[in-house]
Specification:
Elements: H1 2-13, E1 32-34, E2 37-44, E3 49-56, H2 58-69
Antiparallel strand pairs: 1-2, 2-3
Length: 71
Amino acid sequence: WTSRKEAINLSQSLNLPITGEKLTSVHINNGYDFLGFNIKRVYSTRSAKHIPLVSPSNQSIDQFKENLTNI
């Protein structure tokens, strides 16, 4: 996987310790969770283009609800 090797080389050049086991590559159409948000690409009928959709991840929503019940 050249993209994986490129990502590892880039992280090493920036002095960021990233191992190959932690690095996964996914297609944005499938979506992924990052820093408490779910990011995916969807088609907008309004603009007739693909746009990124950013929403809270299910885990973040569950944690927020739990915090509310503890108040």
